[in-house]
Design brief:
The complex is a heterodimer of chains A (258) and B (302). Chain A has 258 residues and is of the alpha/beta class. Chain A has seven helices and 17 strands. Chain B is built from ten helices and 16 strands. In chain B, the strands form four sheets. Chain B has an eight-stranded parallel barrel, surrounded by eight helices. In chain B, strand 3 (17-19), helix 1 and strand 4 (41-43) form a beta-alpha-beta unit. The chains are: A alpha/beta (258), B alpha/beta (302).
Amino acid sequence: MSRIQIVPLLDVVRESSLTTTYRFRADIGGDAGQFVMVWIPKWDELPMALSYLGPVKGITVRAYGDATKALQSFKPGDRIGVRGPYGNTFRLEGERVLAVAGGTGVTSLIASVEAFAQQGAKITTAIGARTAEELVFVDRAGASGETHIATDDGSRGLHGFVPVLAEKLLAKGRYDQVIVCGPERMIKLVVDAALKRNLKVQASLERYMKCGVGICDACAFDDKLVCLDGPIFPGEVLAASEDFGAFRRDKSGRRVPL
Amino acid sequence: MVDLRAELAGIRLRNPTMLASGILDETAGSLLRVHRAGAAAVVTKSIGPEPREGYANPTVVELEMGLLNAVGLPNPGIAEFEREVRQAVGGGATVIGSVYGKDAEEFAKVASAMAGYGVVAVELNLSCPHAKGLGTEIAQHGDAVAEITRAVKDVVSVPVFPKLSPNVSNIAAFATAAERAGADGVVAINTVKAMTIAPELKMPVLANRFGGLSGPAIRPIGVRAVYDIHEAVDIPVVGVGGIASGRDALEYIMAGASAVQLGTVLMSRGVGAFEAVLKEMAALLEEIGLASVREAIGVAHE
């Protein structure tokens, strides 16, 4: 059982035009890669990765829907609900790691990038965004290792999609494993690229969730649950999946194309 | 060896445990996972005539004594659900299809389609405590339970099990009405209508404000309900509500249940709950000198 805790926001930091970090103190654990269910009162409750660990935790949220847009107006002292932490963590499986983040995926990956670097891994991070203004955590990734950037509009770094950047890095560098988070189709490209080279790869998936604790079946794919068995899955599991990269469940439970 | 086999309205079950409706039962993958974990039968999410998104989050609140939910009957609709049921049945699961509707006609239509997908029985959700115009709201009286049961019995040949609400003054009267209308058994209980408030925010946590409580807190309520129903009817009773151990399951069975359903316990014990409960139940039966589950049914009445 992890009861919901109602906590005041301690700090609100605008990271980019659309993305904001909210810091709060909550008496819950939390390891890199895990997520919490965040209640935005009167709006919604959503799964969000912990972008900062430790006593003062953080979530970093892109304003894309009504609830996350409403959250943008929250100020220090305003309260949210959090429960968790839920889910598993990335496992370090070698010395040289390539982390690939697309869009908001970097908010799920950044704590693991830092944790791996602290464990002594040599970590290279590829961060992709639509445009330079939307890039977040480039400095944090840079403090943990080499960092490469791709933007869809070419405003910074490689002009193109982050899987293309990942492919280039894999072609010229040597890595023991790949970790990846972002839109599912982008994840699929990176997973395929890693598996093609016989590299270990783990991906963190994002799905619509209601319970977060493995009972409501909203985040099911194949016979797995993203909340309970994930959100991080090994590449072999994803490669064998019928749903990964192709189908998701909508709010009613219908299996719909991604 | 204790004989764990059970039987329910002619349906032979390898043991007395089933998956309760609403838990890990919206996709074939999850239904099969629970089947493989040891459940003798799996009850589907309640399915209605059309797709339904359910309520906004928060829909689920973990409390120290149980789980409060107002998920709002999300489901892909009966047409879309065919794929999941057929895949689960094809994979070897014994599937019971839970259905809901706004009236007897809708119940009959959905149940008829569900029966055609290969389920061994149909469970009627007459007891969702939080869906407007559905569940408890349309089954306030024994008459409504009887009307819906009769309408479904007219169109399906598999056994029909109405699931009853504890949010009434006399649940046994509803069981009697169901029995008279031809029900092959009843399932008791659904969740108990409840609310929790976040004092810091001065508002209920659930987006729907109130919902249904499940888990350990409601077990004594369920055991009492099953006990009363067993006194009142001759059809079998399926006990559900807060079962987390073999000992809990035996309470229901001794109150009169022929089988039991597990739900909220999957949150704490995972799908391994089925094997654990069966093992605990067998050990306890052996300890008290009963050779089979069947011998334990209703013994608390003697």
